[in-house]
Amino acid sequence: MISGLASADVPVPGGFSTTAHAYRQFLAQDGLDEEINALLDDPEIYTDVTKLQATGKYIREKILTMPFSPELEASILENWERVSEGNPNAAFAVRSSATAEDLPDASFAGQQETYLNVRGREELFAKIKEVFASLFTDRAISYRHDRDFDHNKVALAATIQQMVRSETGSSGVMFSLDTETGFRDVVFVTSAWGLGETVVGGTVNPDEFYVFKPTLEQGKKAVVGRNLGSKMVKMVYAKGGGSEIVETDERERTQWSVTDDEVLELSKMATAIEKHYGFPVDVEWAKDGDTGKLYIVQARPETVASRKKANVKEEFKLKERGSSLVEGRAVGARIGAGTVRILSDASQMAEFKEGEVLVADMTDPDWEPIMKKAAAIVTNRGGRTCHAAIIARELGIPAVVGTADATDKLKDGDEVTVVCSEGDTGVVYAGQLDYERKVEDLTDLPDIPVKLMLNLANPSRAFEYGQLPNAGIGLARLEFVINNVIGIHPRALLGFDKLPQDLRNTILEKTKGYPDPVSFYVDKIAEGVGTLAASVYPRRIIVRLSDFKSNEYKSLLGGPLFEPDEENPMIGFRGAGRYTDESFRECFELELLAMKKVREEMGLTNVELMIPFVRTLEMAQEVNDVLESNGLKRGDNGLKVQMMAELPSNVFLADEFLDYFDGFSIGSNDLTQLTLGLDRDSGLVAKHFDERNPAVKKALAHIIQTAKARGKYVGICGQGPSDFPDFAQWLLEQGIDS
């Protein structure tokens, strides 16, 4: 890595390495290699965990007591003195590089040992032997057997690198693709305070970032997603050598452990490494707390997400619900069910039975022999790049990590269902619930004379659905991000200082990590839309600005303080009329600030805007004026502004409305209820709701024909075409664009 990445202008700490040949010569002394091969030929060790543990321990002890040859010891000492420049107290990291560990079809990051803050020649010799011995840990033996690797053909090099002083800085892991979906246009960066083993091992819930590669290459601030981790602990140097885990303070827990600029710099390194090697990579990095400089300390192929077939859709769906027991980060979009088995350490592995749900504080590579038997994995600690997450992906089983309290809330023998198929949040439900699995191959879809666009508002599913065949996102409802990601009324954030103290405390807890509550609102909208836009870039995404009704706004935190009581909010204070009203305009301008950030700072110019519920031509003019005064003028930098055609007035004055907009997106749900004069939320009249009613179809035909005559876009995003094939066929005949 040191020689290979230097030419790619990637900073790597200096050091040296033993060779695979030196390792083989070391084992050949006194016939140890032949003895090891004979022991590993015993088939019983692969079915009996206790026998596997005894065999692995015996081999490791033999390696640790085997002396180095005089030639190898002299060579190690010579290079140690060269790199340490005469400083007998120089600190090094001793890592492993196995000849099979990092092949494109096998990763198992962290399978062999890493030792940090190694000082002095004697400790260096000892740790090199321990790295050699780690090729025969229980998990390494089991892993190679399961993947048909010949133990005799696997060799190992010990790499000795100068330590990066990240114990006073930060460190983490990054991938040059999304680890959950295999989406290749992002870099996924994780970060925590101190040495990086806490992130790799899963002892900490790290900060997470997504960076969009195409606009990163354009020099844009391409961080499209962020999640603040709890970062309860960090690893630092221990007195006398080695390392130890200590608790972080409140400031460290509520601040990002790396800046956006540093995330962008790291992402550039990840893309450079990916280009250098020609495949997606899994990279460990460290920031020197003394100098502030960033370094790459390890790089290997990413071997799980990169092999996913983008056009094969696997979907798991619950068919019933139970009570939610614990929640955490979802890993693997799957569902698993079984009986809970709580283990506190690897010595209890023999107790674990096939098909149980493994619950633990955290896992490490020693647990691999039983993880492959689990129906699902649940841990208290860890993020999406921790050991449990990596193994779960490789094994194809669901995992919920970072729950904080799974070992307290779940009990041995509990029947549970682990659900990771509904977005970023994984949930453990009580009971073994019924679910279904569907697999569809979308590779050879027929050509059709219309563009199919996604109706997608959930950022946590964007990278998954964005890889399906599509012509972009035809409807991204901003209220989904506001309701599910933010959950706070914008007026409460603007008037934060005047709120009751208990409400201020709740908001401060939700907005930690951001400069102020208003910045939180703007940035979270920008991140949500940025993620959605990145998933289909450069194809268009039409973002419908917020269309909450007053009763829906009232459900947000602080909402009751600012929202009116309306008898019929469905046709009340909503859409364009709300945007331009003096009581709400300042809130609307926060949305526009976020849209401007997405288009200009992130560089996602595929974002188009859509204005809902435009009752009059005067409203159309007023809302365009507000857009322009906030730096979002139609036509500037390619900005298109669509109107949701959903009111009878939009039908009667379709041609006139197109003077103010670049096209129509038909909201057939509202148009149907307002044309037929019924409440679509009322079960009493639901039987009369039908988009195929002749009056509705006449309105739709007029909207489509008017837009086509003006050479402008017209699409539909209502439910009707999905439910009624004959209706979809009729829309095609009318000339609908999407």
Describe the structure in your own words.
- The protein is α/β, with parallel strands linked by helices and 738 residues long.
- Helices cover 36% and strands 21% of the residues.
- Strands 14-18-17-16-15-19-20 form a seven-stranded mixed beta barrel. A seven-stranded parallel beta sheet has the order 22-23-24-25-26-27-28.
- The longest helix is centred in the last third of the chain and has 20 residues, at 517-536.
List descriptors.
alpha/beta, seven-stranded parallel beta sheet, 29 helices
List the helices and strands and how they pair.
Blueprint (H helix, E strand, L loop, with lengths): L1 H5 L8 E3 L2 H9 L3 H9 L8 H17 L4 H15 L6 E8 L16 E5 L1 H13 L4 H9 L9 E7 L7 E6 L10 E8 L3 H5 L5 E6 H4 L6 E5 L5 E5 L5 E5 L2 H5 L5 H18 L3 E7 L6 E8 L10 E7 L5 E8 L3 E8 L14 E4 L7 H4 L4 E4 L7 H9 L3 E3 L4 H4 L5 E5 L5 E6 L4 E7 L12 E2 L6 H4 L7 E5 H9 L3 H5 L6 H10 L6 H20 L4 E4 L5 H5 L20 H5 L5 H17 L5 E5 L5 H13 L11 E5 L2 H5 L1 H4 L5 E4 L1 H9 L17 H16 L3 E4 L3 H4 L1 H10 L4
Parallel strand pairs: 15-16, 16-17, 17-18, 22-23, 23-24, 24-25, 25-26, 26-27, 27-28
Antiparallel strand pairs: 1-4, 2-3, 2-4, 5-6, 5-11, 6-7, 7-8, 9-10, 11-12, 13-21, 14-18, 14-20, 15-19, 19-20
- Structural class assignment: alpha/beta
For the report, how would you describe the main beta sheet? 7 strands, mixed, barrel
Low-confidence stretches: none
Share of residues in strands: 15-25%
Q: Globular, elongated, flat, extended or rod-shaped: what is the shape?
A: elongated
Distance between the termini: 49 Å
Helix tally equals 29
